[in-house]
Amino acid sequence: MLDYAILGLLKNRPLTGYDIDKIINKSIKNFWSILQSQVYKELKKMENNELIAAEVVIQKNKPNKVIYSITEKGDRYYETFFDNDKLDISKLCDIKILFLIRMFFGSHTDKEHNIEFLEKLRKSFIDKIASLELIKVNIIDVAPINNNYVNNHWYWTSTVNCGIQMCNSIISWIDNCLVEIKKQ
Fold this sequence. Notes:
8% strand; three-stranded antiparallel beta sheet; Arc Repressor Mutant, subunit A; 2 domains; 3 strands; elongated; mainly alpha
């Protein structure tokens, strides 16, 4: 999936690895955790597979800059991401929610620890909503400016809205859990 994300960014304009990482941190990271090291590893792999091309720009008194752009082969590969007949949509529904592992084994500790855990988790999701609201306000800074800007902005903002709705839903679930645990 990371290759598709990178190609999607490069469809808008050529970017350096640093630029790609910066855009990911201000947009995609709100729903998918990606490390900087993963980005650079994937860029190398994509270049080897000829999905992207790298142009080295010599800079005076600075390290050289590598600018990546999508190739024709990369463009064809990227288009497969939108072929609903070939895409295994069920894989896109895979959800890994780490705090549920802790909750699943909640009976292995006492009620007070579980209440404390859920209260901290609740606060964390409230903070996450504030962070997402800030991303929504600032997304204009990273949404690509091109002929497709209005559409890009809407789609990018919709992912932030999804994150906010998910956080609110989880907070509601936490509130219900707290009520039930306190009854025990």
